Automatic annotation (TrEMBL):
Family classification: Belongs to the mTERF family.
Any one Pfam family match given in the protein's UniProt record, by short name: mTERF
GO process annotations (BP): DNA-templated transcription termination
Keyword Cell membrane: no
The keyword Manganese is annotated on this UniProt entry: no
Protein name, UniProt field: Uncharacterized protein
Organism field: Stephania cephalantha
């Protein structure tokens, strides 16, 4: 009898393997959170996704699963999905399957590698939605016709994600590009072309006219754009305020910005005015080194820590009640000055900033 019972018990499967198999079964997907978790998103990342786009909580699971499978198949991770949805909250509400293979076949050789392409997609997820012929190929052909090859176009696409849908060229823009005086192989040429292409022609005219009011000729303005194309991205208000300070307060000639364009870029309240006030304070106190002439321009271009070390802390230990502490307090107070009536200024929305 014992032998029979022993043979029966040895034939029964052990419960431990069955338990392990049951525990290893994938949990059924019942919510959108399960789908994102399956793609590698953490709970905190899922919370960010739903905060940016709450409608995803009620998405059709089958449709959402197919879209996430396409993105995961491209090599995008869970953290990449968070960046994409943070950039384009309604991205998963669009149709991304139609023509996707053709876009990838064209874009991957354009960007040189799948890794670079994924970097571009994270910065501009709409690359997966743009019409291949009417948008992507048209833009690439446009820049190639202007002398901007694909190896130069890729950095532009990474730095300005909306380059593809916003680029357009007409005869007047071509004339502006020609008058910038750059050869197609010049380092700044591709930036001039790109900024001109994505800017409204009315905006370009307005910014050229704004600089001409300070006594520059049209050729000088275009030469400035050729040497420092990002001047075209500055608002009219910022250029006016910085130029007024340079001419009226610093008592420098307007043409100095043609040689030192950084005077137009730097923030007036946090860099130009406080450092110029420190220079004047040092002059009135008769301290050395003085900040005037070429030294003033060098001081304005210094990093914050270097400026403080070279022109403020050099006058004594801040722990003492001496000149160094007084000058440091003066500099801190100067940086606290705010633009008058900035809180009551009504924002003007004009669409794309260029």
């Amino acid at each position: 009898m014992k032998a029979i019972l022993h043979s029966l018990t040895t034939r029964l499967p052990s419960p431990r393997p069955l338990l392990r198999a049951a525990l290893s079964l994938p949990k059924p997907i019942t919510t959108s959170s399960d789908l994102f978790r399956q793609c590698g998103c953490t709970d905190s990342e899922i919370s960010i996704i739903f905060h940016r786009q709450p409608s995803l909580l009620k998405s059709d699971l089958q449709t959402l699963e197919s879209k996430l499978a396409l993105l995961k198949g491209l090599g995008l991770s869970g953290s990449d999905l968070v960046k994409i949805i943070n950039c384009r909250p309604r991205f998963l509400a669009t149709r991304i399957g139609r023509g996707l293979d053709d876009r990838i076949k064209f874009l991957e050789p354009l960007f040189g590698s799948r890794q670079t392409l994924l970097k571009a997609i994270i910065r501009n997820p709409s690359l997966l939605n743009y019409d291949l012929n009417n948008h992507i190929k048209r833009t690439v052909s446009l820049y190639e016709s202007l002398g901007v090859g694909r190896e130069d176009l890729v950095p532009l696409l990474l730095s300005r994600p909306t380059l593809i849908p916003r680029s357009s060229i007409n005869d007047e823009k071509l004339e502006y590009i020609r008058r910038a005086g750059l050869a197609p192989d010049a380092k700044m040429y591709k930036y001039v072309v790109a900024i001109m292409a994505i800017s409204r022609i009315e905006t370009i005219r307005e910014k050229v006219a704004n600089l001409e009011r300070f006594g520059f000729s049209n050729d000088e303005v275009m030469g400035l754009f050729g040497r420092s194309p990002l001047v075209l991205t500055l608002s009219v208000d910022k250029v006016q305020r910085n130029m007024t300070f340079v001419i009226g307060t610093m008592k420098l000639a307007a043409r100095i910005v043609l040689v030192y364009p950084f005077l137009l870029y730097y923030n007036l309240e946090t860099v130009l005015r406080p450092r110029f006030m420190v220079a004047e304070r040092i002059r009135l106190m008769g301290l050395a080194p003085q900040i005037k002439g070429p030294a003033l321009l060098r001081a304005l271009r210094m990093t914050e820590s270097r400026f403080v070390k070279v022109y403020v802390q050099c006058h004594g230990d801040e722990k003492d009640d001496g000149v160094g502490k007084e000058l440091m307090q003066f500099y801190v107070n100067a940086k606290r000055f705010k633009r008058l009536a900035v809180a009551s200024k009504k924002p003007v929305h004009r669409g794309f900033p260029f």
